[in-house]
Amino acid sequence: MSDLSAFSPDYPAARDKFRDAARAAGAALEDFLNPAKPPPGHDGELTTDVALLGPRDAGRVLLVNSGTHGVEAFAGSAIEIGFLAGLSALPNGVRIVLVHAINPHGFAWLRRVTEENVDLNRNFLDHDGPHPANDAYDALHPALCPDRWDAPALAEMERTIEDYVHKNDAFALQAVVTRGQYDHPDGIFYGGKRPTWSNSTFRDILDRHVTGARRIAFVDLHTGLGGYGDAEMIGGAGPATPGGRRMRDWYGDIVTSPSAGTSSSAPLVGVIARSVREAARGADVISATLEFGTYPVRDVLHALLADNWLHAHGDLDSPLGREIKADIRKRLFPDEDDWKERVLTKGVEILNRTLAGLGDA
Ligand SMILES: [Zn+2]
Fold it and tell me: Which of 92, 142, 167, 348 places its Cα 20 to 30 Å from the Cα of 57?
């Protein structure tokens, strides 16, 4: 049995618990202050916290990140805390950089997006050039993002989704919606037109603690895709590449690849791993999104659409507002012991496996 006290009920508790676990493990701590305001009733400010272990000049780095998608950090935070609690001696020549809540606003406000309404995992691209078009999303946007959240609007939304799935298929719907879009700042999976605070902060952390390493293993912790409690290591490298083969050696058959069509995720642009490769400057990089499944895609999507409407048009302090916030929390963090047990056990196991792999390499 894992110690489920690694999970926290909200962002402030998670931040405090992470800092305590880092200090207890002998880590140095840094924090980065987010300029947005915390929700009513939350003590303290919104910060991204970084725990650092091992020699600063070590050539190999284990980099772990939680909360790229805000509310998904309930799981990521617990995995980082559980990993810290079980940590013994580090392999020689390895250091650890644990980033807690890179999108603290999303975690605290129970949102997947940043304070700019941006999907951080679509924001890491070249903002000086043209942004990718997504015509299929353009057509769906008016029905998916209505001004009102009432029976006619919901019926129209349902009709539009059903129609699209009927003409294409369910994965095609997921692909066009989740791929990211850059033309509707009020829409879902909006990638933004400039780097967000979380993007700049993550790059700052990379500059300070990752650039210069010869070998980097990056694990980005997520929830919301796949079967309830199932783990998937979504790799950036194709299965036939050296990086892809090493991932299979380390993690076995939970490794998948969107480009090879074996993942529950569609291919994406602007993902956070891109910044790690850019900061690595020729180093050997293994990078993966560790995804834990929660509920069916349509249920998760519905929660995201409702939350998008709520923050644009609704009242958080109303019965409907509270219902929507409870739903998005549940859809990305099933607060049930069986789910938490599987996620924490597997998550910590994967981080330990990654650390051992780095030490062997
Ligand atoms: Zn995610």
Answer: 348
CA distances from 141 to 14, 25, 165, 223 (A): 35, 47, 15, 24
Q: Tell me, in angstroms, the distance from the centre of ligand 1 to residue 5's CA.
A: 23
Those residues whose beta carbon sits under 5 angstroms from the ion ligand 1 are 69, 72, 222
Query: CA nearest 87: which of 20, 28, 2, 22?
Result: 22
CA of 223 to the centre of ligand 1 (A): 5
Band of residue 43 on the pLDDT scale cut at 50, 70, 90: confident
Task: Say how many Å lie between the CA of residue 263 and the centre of ligand 1.
Answer: 14
Tokens of 226: 């796949």
Domain annotation for the chain: domains and CATH numbers: 4-127+199-296+330-360 (3.40.630.10), 135-189+299-327 (no CATH)
In contact, 15 and 47? CB cutoff 8 Å: yes
Strands (E) across the chain are located at: 28-33, 47-53, 60-66, 94-100, 215-228, 231-235, 255-256, 284-293
pTM of the model: 0.97
CA of 224 to the centre of ligand 1 (A): 7
**What's the CA-to-centroid distance between 218 and ligand 1, angstroms?**
15
CA of 107 to the centre of ligand 1 (A): 12
Strands 60-66 and 215-228: parallel
Ligand 1 center–CA 152 separation, angstroms: 30
Residue 261: band (very low, low, confident or very high) from pLDDT cuts 50, 70, 90: confident
Mean pLDDT along residues 272-297: 94
